[in-house]
Design goal:
The chain has 251 residues and is an all-alpha fold. Helices cover 83% and strands 0% of the residues. It is rod-shaped. The mean pLDDT is 83.
Length: 251
């Protein structure tokens, strides 16, 4: 009788599990990469065309970046889970290694959006307020010029130079001083409406900007910390793997 021990049969359940793990890892990896690709696709088309010197474009870019980063974070985490299911897949390991390295730069970019949004928001509001002040100043100059009109031809010339001139009849139905007072009243009402609108909308702009800036800053800080945390995990794993390899080589 042979002394060679009999080989223990592999249970069917264990064999099924060993086949299921690579399949699960592959499915998770495909889903994660598809999610990340869709997120990047949305980001790219949201920021086109590029207008790097435009504060409005910069604000649009930051909003699109924050919206896509959550999906990218989920995709990265799913890819890490897929790596755990199949640690022998070298192709998957290279993809995970590359994405974990890119997570560092993505996290830094997210943290940089905090000061960038403050700059872009303040610049945008300043430009809007400057445009409003310019229009009001122009209306005041027109009124002052209108007051100097001494006859019908001068009055019509001043009215025609307005951005949105009031309609004047072909022939005045009242004496020139009366018509002049009517038009002056109309222009003064427009000026007062513009001043009141500026007083109403400027605080609303700042309130809206501050609320958006706080919300986006918190979101950027949380997402940026998460991406940098993935990088920290990657560095520890790499150092642990190197230490294990060195110990094996020395022994």
């Amino acid at each position: 009788m042979s002394d060679t021990p009999l080989r223990q049969p592999v249970p069917g359940g264990e064999r099924h599990k060993s086949r299921l793990k690579p399949l699960t890892a592959r499915s998770l990896a495909v889903g994660a990469l598809a999610l990340m690709a869709a997120s990047l696709n949305s980001l790219i088309f949201a920021i086109l065309p590029l207008q790097l010197n435009s504060p409005d474009w910069l604000l649009r870019f930051i909003s699109a970046l924050l919206a896509s980063s959550l999906q990218l974070l989920v995709g990265t985490l799913v890819l890490l889970v897929a790596r755990l299911f199949n640690s022998r897949d070298l192709k998957l390991a290279k993809r995970v290694d590359w994405i974990e390295r890119m997570a560092r730069w993505w996290g830094i970019l997210l943290l940089l959006t905090i000061p960038l949004q403050i700059y872009a928001g303040i610049t945008t509001i300043d430009r809007q307020e400057a445009s409003t002040d310019k229009n009001i100043a122009q209306m005041r100059r027109i009124i002052e010029t209108f007051k100097l009109a001494n006859d019908e031809s001068q009055l019509r010339s001043v009215v025609a130079s307005l951005p949105n001139p009031p309609t004047l009849p072909p022939k005045f139905d009242a004496p020139f001083p009366v018509v002049k007072d009517r038009v002056l009243t109309n222009l003064t009402a427009r000026l007062n409406a513009a001043v009141n609108e500026r007083s109403r909308i400027n605080p609303q702009r700042w309130q809206s900007f501050i609320a958006d800036a706080i919300r986006n800053a918190i979101q950027a800080a949380l997402l940026g910390t998460a991406f940098l945390g993935i990088t920290k995990y990657h560095d520890k794993a790499q150092n642990g793997s190197r230490s294990k390899t060195s110990s094996t080589a020395l022994s």
